[in-house]
Amino acid sequence: MNAKKLAGEKAVEFIKDGMIVGLGTGSTVHWSILKLGELVKQSLTIKGVPTSKQTEQLAKELGIPLVNMSSIEQIDITIDGADEANPEFELIKGGGGALLREKMVASISKRMIVVMDETKYVAHLGKFPLPVEITQFGWEMTSKQVSTLGCEPKLRVENNLSFITDNGNYILDCHFGEILDAKRLNEELNMIPGVVENGLFVNIADTMVIGNSDGHVEIIHK
Ligand SMILES: O=C[C@H](O)[C@H](O)[C@H](O)COP(=O)(O)O
């Protein structure tokens, strides 16, 4: 059983006619977007707000009407994936580099539904290195300052080149070990000049839809 597909498709059941829907990024929410595309072709009327260029392209191909974030006040529901989630509904996101737009979209959403397979649901965050988006300007200095919080930041590289986000920034992947105070780390990271945003989502998600390879889906509400 494809656990990501199970979770991704299940979450779409929360979407109702007329909603403005935040469209996350990644291989799990991919299934939600495909499903939404199918439903839109039938009769569902929604407007999507994409969290990355990749998602924007997919939504356009599927005929999902899109709306610019600047022209709306609020999003009804955002569906998005996560790299890790704990029972406190704290997340690590940004494995695909989309964390900034994802956090902006989630922050104006009445509800954020996280879709994942069971391997992402962990007791403590931190096995997955925390993505931190930083400006290209002065990145070495920013990296040094991030390291003082207790990690060895690694500049993300893709195809032998520095990875560049949709916003023209770099990503540092930061191994902090077990993250016991996500709220504090989130604040400390974002206080560093040069840090644009980090992948910790604290007090943002309200529902988790977890697909299991044995075929069952668990839904947990905050
Ligand atoms: O930047 C990427 C996003 O935060 C993704 O939602 C996250 O990495 C999970 O992706 P996937 O569902 O592909 O594991």
TrEMBL record:
Catalysed transformations (reactions): aldehydo-D-ribose 5-phosphate = D-ribulose 5-phosphate
UniProt cross-references to InterPro entries, sorted A to Z: NagB/RpiA_transferase-like, Ribose5P_isomerase_typA_subgr, Ribose5P_isomerase_type_A
UniProt key word Isomerase: yes
Gene Ontology cellular component list: cytosol
Enzyme Commission designation: 5.3.1.6
SUPFAM superfamilies: D-ribose-5-phosphate isomerase (RpiA), lid domain, NagB/RpiA/CoA transferase-like
Pathway assigned to this chain's UniProt record: Carbohydrate degradation; pentose phosphate pathway; D-ribose 5-phosphate from D-ribulose 5-phosphate (non-oxidative stage): step 1/1
GO molecular function, one term: ribose-5-phosphate isomerase activity
A GO BP annotation: D-ribose metabolic process
Residues of the active site: 102
Binding annotation for substrate: 25-28, 80-83, 93-96, 120
Family of the protein in this entry: Belongs to the ribose 5-phosphate isomerase family.
Subunit structure: Homodimer.
The name this protein goes by in its record: Ribose-5-phosphate isomerase A
Species annotation: Lederbergia citri
Name of the coding gene: rpiA
